[in-house]
Amino acid sequence: MTVLDIVFWLLAVISIGAALAVVFLQNIFRAALFLVLCFFAVAGLFITLQADFLAVAQVLIYVGAISILIILAIMLTREMWRGNPGGRFQLPAFIIALGLFGVMVWAVINTSWQISAELPLVPTTAAIGSRLFGEGGLLLPLEIAAVLLLAAILGAIVLVREK
Amino acid sequence: MSVSLEHYLILSALLFCIGLYGALSRRNTIVILMSIEIMLNAVNVALVAFSRYIVPLVLTGQVFALFVMVVAAAEVAVGLAIIIALYRSRETVDVEQADLMKG
Asked: From CA B58, how far away is CA A10, in angstroms rounded?
């Protein structure tokens, strides 16, 4: 076992445990805090995959922005006392999730992946930048993503504005 | 046995299925939204693992994960706005009571 393996297993256990806590905890506020832990663990997984820029973006966007928004929404809706009840479809949902997991594990194990022997690029920031903005890059999708964000902001403002 | 692509993919599948179960079985809208975030994170882990192990020099998976993050941010903003608007008009965030369009 190398250090990387130990870190991977540790982060895997943390992320799975935090995700289970998000789904099953009765206190929604604590569930949101475990969601933050799950985001941090995923950022750590990105670091073990040598995706340094994405790990930082994960911390900035998910931990810094999205979880704050979710916690604010929990405070604004005052539904804490109701807890986190299950719906009518718990058993079908469990069967669907288990079936999908089985299918995905079967597909992963039975595919012969063509693992590349090349060492990954480190650091990745400049490479991602030239991949997005460089020759034959993804400039149009990037601009569309910017327009999507603007539309989402305007939509959110229109939705929550007092009449 | 050292960590390989399969480990990351199975971890991603497990996270995705936990999120799927949460999204399908819970009644609180905010918990459903959090479960969807877990599913998007699981997809990102799979994309970055593919990028690292199969095409480590092209970075397509990482760029795609970046776009997933952008869409997730937009989705969570609009989703929470809808939840707050729903709470204002119906005093609840329970999906089973949000049945105005039920036939």
From this structure: 28
